[in-house]
Design brief:
Blueprint (H helix, E strand, L loop, with lengths): L55 H4 L14 E4 H9 L11 H7 L9 E4 L9 E4 L1 E2 L1 H9 L3 E4 L16 H5 L1
Length: about 170
């Protein structure tokens, strides 16, 4: 047997049906779409249409809402931080912040920073600088001899010379 003699078993691969290519193909003329009507034509968009009856997606009750002011934190548990320190992916001697956690692959996303949560336990003495932390996480870190500093997320500041126009100034 040679490499250039290798073939699939007969019938292992099925060729696609080319529709609308003459009556000899078995899928000619109407191309498997049946006769007449909206669905036999091109450009049909009736997914979810129920003949004028109120569609299912509109009949079902809606729940919840998206908070436009909600913060997006990357949530990190102290147990995982300890695991990464043990695996030498994080340096416990340096300050652990969002950038360090992201570089280690521990914090994904989190436009507004990192929030430290108290699942697991930590033995290493670590200094955290994070955007938020639970009471349990702070207690566990301080018990291990570390510290947690809550840093406010940086807000984009307007330039020093710029002032926002007030309604009173516009009226004058």
């Amino acid at each position: 047997m040679k490499l250039n003699d290798i073939r699939d078993n007969p019938g292992a691969r099925k060729e696609r049906t080319r529709i609308g290519r003459g009556i000899g193909s078995g899928k000619g003329k109407t191309g498997g779409r049946g006769m007449k009507g909206q669905k036999s034509r091109s450009g049909v968009s009736i997914n979810g249409f129920e003949g004028g009856q109120m569609p299912l997606h509109m009949r079902l009750p809606k729940r919840g809402f998206n908070n436009p002011f909600g913060k997006d934190f990357a949530e990190v548990n102290i147990g995982m931080v300890q695991k990464f320190i043990d695996a030498k992916k994080l340096d416990a001697k340096k300050t652990v912040d969002h950038a360090a956690l992201k570089a280690a692959g521990l914090a994904r996303g989190g436009k507004d920073g990192v929030r430290l949560l108290g699942k697991g336990e930590i033995k290493a003495k670590v200094k955290f600088v994070v955007a938020g932390a639970s009471k349990g996480a702070v207690a566990a870190v301080e018990k291990a001899g570390g510290s947690v500093e809550i840093a406010a997320p940086a807000k984009p500041q307007a330039e020093a010379g710029e002032k926002k126009p007030t309604k009173k100034a516009d009226a004058e």
